[in-house]
Amino acid sequence: MSRPLMATATVEPPQSLITVTHVIYGLHAASLITGIITAATVVAAFLTGWPSLIAVILNYVKRGEAHGTWLESHFRWQIRTFWFGLLWVALCLVFIVATLGVGLLIAWLPLGVVGLWFIYRVARGWLRLNDRRPMYE
After folding, report:
1. Distance CA 61, CA 24 (A)
2. Is 5 inside a domain boundary?
3. Cβ neighbour number for residue 119 with a 10 Å cutoff
4. SS (HEC) of 113-135
């Protein structure tokens, strides 16, 4: 059974939950910036950096409060961004191990795409949040 799109959600979330959602996007953005300006990669900083890990925990703690509001789609978007990114990185690592390290020569390409995808997902989600719009319209 598929879930309906949140565009039909009529309940307005409390301002405090909107603020928490901004904080979560900000934490993810902080991890991305860390990956861009330091020796860490964007992917590593997003998946293992403290700001992103705290953001994912906040997502799980607060998502029940967002149920039935247009923010519910943002929480789903943020959680899926983290877990699908982790899946793609795990697949790249399996490929590298399966090819006895030779795959490292080309694994940087999909990892770079995942990094760009993280940046896109955080930027798109935060912009839609600023417009007070659900993710899936």
Report:
1. 12
2. no
3. 18
4. HHHHHHHHHHHHHHHHHHCCCCC
pLDDT single digits (tens) 59-68: 999 999 999 9
Judge whether 3 lies within some domain. Answer: no
Please say whether the beta carbons of 47 and 137 come within 8 A.
no
Say how many domains are in the chain. 1
Q: Are 12 and 133 in contact (CB under 8 A)?
A: no
**Residues in the chain with pLDDT values less than 50:** 1, 6-7
Q: Give the pLDDT of residue 8.
A: 54
Tokens representing 65?
């409060």
- Whose structure tokens read 């909107």? 18
Place of tokens 């861009």: 36
Q: Are 51 and 41 in contact (CB under 8 A)?
A: no
Phi, psi at 10, each rounded to 5°: -110, -15
| Cα-Cα end-to-end distance for the chain | 19
In the numeric block, which tokens belong to residue 136? 């899936």
**DSSP letter, residue 136:** -
Nearest-CA neighbor of 82 among 27, 136, 129? 27
* CB-based contact 47:127 (threshold 8 Å): no
